[in-house]
Recover the amino acids of this structure.
């Protein structure tokens, strides 16, 4: 263990006397280390599940995060992780999971077109971390 402490405080706060709730970063608590980040798009052509697989080969389930844009009318919005919407004629939702060497991210449309007319695009932005998902 090091005798040094890494701290970054919010503007206007003295980092040497600050309460931990006003810190932006500190090495006193673990935080995620990014392995890779990227993006991809999925062309949704009809009912079904559409996925993209990201391979990491670490041999364990990595922590990951993904955001997506699924409505071209609202590109200023990013939806984090999990999204589901259902209606009288079906369901749309994100679909993601991890294995010990991959992360699979995607979109499921079982709506028969109530959400958008086919085809439409889903844009996914992701981060994979070195940290193990426990």
């Amino acid at each position: 263990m090091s005798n040094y402490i890494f701290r970054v405080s919010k503007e206007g706060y003295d980092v040497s006397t600050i309460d931990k709730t006003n810190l932006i970063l500190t090495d006193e608590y673990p935080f995620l280390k990014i392995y890779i980040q990227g993006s991809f798009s999925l062309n949704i052509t009809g009912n079904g599940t559409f996925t993209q697989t990201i391979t990491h080969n670490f041999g364990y389930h990595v922590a990951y995060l993904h955001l997506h844009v699924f409505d071209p009318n609202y590109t200023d919005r990013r939806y984090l992780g999990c999204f589901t919407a259902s209606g009288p004629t079906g369901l749309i939702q994100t679909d993601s999971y991890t294995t010990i060497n991959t992360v699979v991210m995607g979109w499921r449309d079982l709506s028969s077109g109530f959400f958008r007319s086919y085809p439409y695009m889903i844009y996914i932005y992701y981060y994979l971390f070195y940290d193990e998902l426990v």
